[in-house]
Write a structure and sequence with these properties.
The protein is about 30% helix and about 25% strand. The protein is of the alpha+beta class and about 400 residues long. The protein has helices spanning about 15-20, 20-25, 40-50, 65-70, 115-125, 140-145, 160, 175-180, 200-215, 220-230, 235-245, 250, 255-270, 310-315, 330-335; strands at about 5-10, 35-40, 60-65, 75, 85, 90-95, 110, 135, 150-155, 170, 185-195, 290-295, 310, 320, 325, 340-345, 355-360, 365-370, 375, 380-390, 390-395.
Amino acid sequence: MSAPVLRLGISTCPNDTFLFHGLLSGEVEVEGHRLEIELLDVQELNQRLLDPGPAPAFDVAKASYHLALRMADELLALPTGSALGFGNGPLLLARAGLEPPTPTPSSRVLCPGEHTTAALLYRLFFPEAAAAEHVIFSEVMPALEQGRADLGVCIHEGRFTYAESGLGLVEDLGARWESDTGAPLPLGGIFARRSLPQDTVEAVQDALRRSLALARANPEAALHSMRQYAQEFSDEVLWSHVDLYVNDWTRDLGAQGRRAIETLAERAAHTGLVAPGTRLEVYEPLGERRLFHLVPNADAESLATEGHLPVPSLDSEGFIHLSFSDQLAGTLQAHFDGVQRVALLELDRDSLAGAVRFETSRGGARFPHLFRPLDLDQDVSARWTLEREGESFRVPEASQGRRASGPRDGS
């Protein structure tokens, strides 16, 4: 039986072909799947993701964060692969001799696609100016050079070459975003369909990490992939693009990257560009999620702090049942009926390294199982006492979600 096909859409931008070099060259595989890869302009990728069709065009694709926010109920952001950072945003350019060199209600303004983050920023910062016309990104600068448009929002390699074309810089929209919010700018990312099985999403995320690591370890080999899809640019421009858009947040969004996405959603909702309350979920790789164990009829303060915790399932099943943070409520409801008090223990992932497996359990979901005794002194990083409140337990906020960690977060 042949492996299932995974349809992958990526852009021709140098930062994407650098990131995906391992997958494009075949040196990295998505475990258990055959890849069908299509390379397109980012707005074409956005449009293909939007197209309902009889079947989705892509299972996983590069897209703009603007588009992902609008499709937050259908897409899941992967923590690896984003173009996000300070000083790397789109530029608002003007044709030579334009007076005044700012957008007005009568200006002809071009943007590189209705659902790009560039178009979102233009509407955020110039709400009273003319509505933009949308063209493929590569048509923006030629139209300005030829006087067919007054202003245009430039993305990709053009930020390094616009001056050579005699164009003027009106505003660096990324710099303005940074000044206004203090946050890095989420431009584009890699997104998976929520309908994909968890194992598939996990395999894609793992492949992205390995593909990026391969490109960083052998940049000259990655340059071959970059040249193949951007042959009109010099190697110097290609590397400038990679240096700007491939950074620590590309490997992992971290807590600061996640907050930046939330900020973008809040700003877009405030101006009516996305629905109020929009929240884009970022996938948490299984091996990076917070791990918890629940002890029935126990008080966290009086529970022993040393020695092995006696857990019956270790003898009867060969492992100790653990839960991720988003599984705690379901575990309490399913297995702690009639229990009035529970000790909640958060476990140290590094301490448990190599002893935890992720296996299918309740409802077909993957649960963490610990295949060795639980050492109360070495393995437990935090503890709480949960008291039943009516029909359920109140799980403390401190045990919810992701620990503040990741690049440039001070940890």
